[in-house]
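Sequence, please.
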């Protein structure tokens, strides 16, 4: 018995004649226990009204049922079905997003130091093409090496704001590639 089957039994009106396995589920499931308690108290309230032979106030049942349905749409059913959580709730719990947020927090906290570190890293990276360039010339790919070197030299010679701007422009592209790779990895893991 799962939460959905339990809810369906309740909706069918079998509050007191519930099978043993349904009662066992409600015993171990807080959400369904709440649903059962709510259904029983609603029934008791209705019985009390009809037993006293007093006509319920106009719209009483509608109001109660509307409240029960609102409560279930908001609470019980969503708790019972994790896959029904809104996408942003699940997205916020993804390891990649958590890592990105942590990085952002670190950057905000010690931005200056991080920028200085990034600057040093970039300077080192800017010298890599020179070695690649020499290698390319040796291998007979001179023009390609020249073009790459000129392009990277112009970036390394430009101001930090241009470099940061370039990095910000390239970052979304890298993020998309990383996301595609992650999806591919997930699909591969799911296939095994
Ligand atoms: Zn349940």
């Amino acid at each position: 018995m799962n939460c959905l089957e339990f809810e369906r039994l309740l909706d069918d009106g079998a509050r007191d004649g519930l099978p043993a396995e349904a009662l066992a589920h409600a015993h171990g499931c807080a959400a369904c226990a709440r649903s059962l308690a709510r259904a029983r108290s609603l029934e008791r309230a209705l019985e009390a009204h009809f037993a006293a032979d007093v006509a319920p106030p106009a719209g009483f049942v509608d109001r109660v049922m509307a409240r029960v349905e609102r409560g279930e749409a908001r609470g019980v059913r969503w708790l019972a079905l994790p896959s029904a959580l809104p996408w942003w709730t699940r997205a916020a719990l993804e390891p990649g997003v958590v890592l990105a947020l942590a990085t952002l927090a670190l950057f905000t906290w010690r931005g200056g130091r991080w920028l200085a570190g990034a600057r040093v890293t970039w300077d080192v990276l800017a010298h890599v093409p020179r070695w690649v360039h020499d290698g390319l010339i040796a291998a007979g790919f001179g023009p390609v090496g020249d073009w790459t070197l000129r392009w990277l030299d112009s970036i390394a010679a430009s101001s930090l704001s241009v470099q940061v701007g370039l990095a910000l422009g390239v970052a979304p592209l890298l993020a998309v590639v990383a996301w595609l790779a992650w999806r591919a990895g997930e699909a591969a893991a799911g296939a095994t």
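The CA atoms of residues 131 and 176 lie 29 Å apart.
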